[in-house]
Amino acid sequence: MANKRFDNAKKNKNDEFYTRIEDIEKELDHYKDFFKGKTIFCNCDDPRISNFFKYFALNFNNFGIKKIISTCYKNQDIDLFSQNECEKAVYIEYTGNPNDPTSTDFSTIEVKELKGDGDFRSQECIELLKQSDVVVTNPPFSLFREYVAQLIKYEKKFIIVGHQNAISYKEIFSLIKDNKLWLGYGFKGGAAHFINTHYEDYASAGNHKEGMIRVSGVVWFTNLDIKKRHEELIMYKTYSPEEFPNYENYDAINVDKSTDIPMDYNGVIGVPITFLDKYSPDQFEIIGLGIVGSCEFINERKMEILDKNGIPTGKYTVNAKGTLYRKHHATDKKPAAFKDCETGELYQSIYARILIKRKK
Q1: Which of 9, 103, 174, 248 has the highest CB neighbour number within 10 Å of its CB?
Q2: In this predicted model, what pLDDT tens digit does every residue of 37-70 receive, in sequence order?
Q3: Cα(233)–Cα(229) distance, rounded to whole angstroms?
């Protein structure tokens, strides 16, 4: 249900998902040596309430930061401290407290008004972006493609929060394939809690946190090299065609779990998107994404679409909606999704597969 809330956020553009400082600290502590002498830009953050700004301000001297710039869009719904609507776009340029370097009181920092609306795409904010060395924030979910495109255009280093669904965006996947963007260390359990006033939290009692919403599939994206990226996946399984069947419409085998990648198979392998959390460019090459437009399918069979119970719907598709698919077996837990109109054979669609190949 949390993913549904995420999708609704993209449609409604209620994108103010405030990140917890403990989640920020857990990830950014891996990069703290990089921040020395750097100007850090948090360009989707009201400095009065942003935990990103708070984290960097608290560690300003410890990390040896040069400057923190924090800007916000004027249409944020609520100032969480005053409960008043944020009518003005504001920003802060913080260079430390020379009178008391150990001070953690930021209430006296001058908050200035921006001339425009504080949109990260505005020329005013772009000029601040040009001054920065690295961007660190939780950008709007609904504008993720455009946000990343801007960072790439201005050749900025970044550490940003996003959703794993973005991996399948054509523009984002292209950057991943070309090793211009990759995953960071990540959130515990692949889920995060955000402060958000728009949605009811459907998390279980054990995962519920008052005043927050739990969103699964949340990840960190970065283009900073990290140790994790060079840790190779340990493979222990051997290839067998029974356990790792070929797709019907692409010359590759299917692997359902990244940890099950066979150590003795040198052809193309289809793995879940979650593989990217274990991806090392030293060990694997990314070939493509198993959808139309990313790879060339072998055949184009006309198929009848079956419902979730395996019953014909009377609707038809070519090539299983443009995804990878394999023959359906009686032992499969899920019912077949498609039936070949010519042969009557049943097939199972396999969604969201990244095609990879071993380098060694």
Answers
A1: 9
A2: 999 999 998 888 888 999 999 999 999 999 999 9
A3: 10
Strands (E), the chain: 18-19, 39-42, 67-71, 90-94, 112-113, 134-137, 157-163, 182-183, 191-195, 212-216, 218-222, 253-254, 269-272, 284-289, 302-306, 312-318, 324-327, 338-340, 346-350, 353-358
Reported pTM: 0.82
Q: Say what the pLDDT of residue 102 is.
A: 61
Residue 236 DSSP code: -
Distance CA 279, CA 254 (A): 17
Task: Name the β-bridge partners of 289.
Answer: 354
- Based on its alpha-carbon atoms, the radius of gyration of the chain, rounded to whole angstroms, reads 23
Q: Please give the average per-residue pLDDT across 110-122, as a whole number.
A: 91
How far is it, in rounded angstroms, from Cα 120 to Cα 146?
Answer: 10
| Element spanning 319, H or E | helix 319-322
**Residues 137 and 18: beta-carbon distance below 8 Å:** no
